[in-house]
Amino acid sequence: MTVPSSSLQSHYIPNDIRKLCSIPFPQPRVADEQGQLTTHNLIVLGAYDTDLHVLSLLDLQTTSSTSTQSSNTTPITLASWEHPGGEVTDVHVSSQPDGTLLVLAGSTNGSITRLQMLIPQAPGSHPRDIQLIGSDVRGQQLQPWVHPHQGRVAFVCHQPDDNIVLSGGQDGQLWMGDATGVSADAWYGVGMFGQYLHI
Q1: Measuring CA to CA, which residue among 104, 119, 108, 106 is closest to residue 179?
Q2: Where are the alpha helices (DSSP H) in the chain?
Q3: Cβ–Cβ < 8 Å for 36, 65
């Protein structure tokens, strides 16, 4: 399907973006008393910013006027954390069985970081109502969750039905583990030649 050029928008983000993924967020159903409709389009992105590799939560906030038929979009950084494993090599967003949103980020040093968030579900909610769950963040730094690879993480993904995380790395290893696990001790690896290893 071809997207009309009038609907395409470009926004300047003052970071060197490496990876990004959208985050589902409820949208308003009706305009406010001033006839304005504000939507929040959330994005998680891995970037290089002022000598630091970071994982950031961004809101492309769009305000539309029903009276003038005009709209304005403003990129707003909601939060930004130092990514301890170096460059963000992959980002995956998925829902866990308990309804929390799971954000996974691979890194160049072989580790995976994790964010768990409660996203409000009511139409017209505001991003300030998002709650971080667990101990994945300390101050302004993400904490490494697991370190399953020697070298760069090529991909990381989450299977909601089984609540399983799968990752692959430049070391030729595939790793699989429970998304609620707290260390690599609960993970299983499959090597380049197919043998099954219990770590």
Answers
A1: 104
A2: none
A3: yes
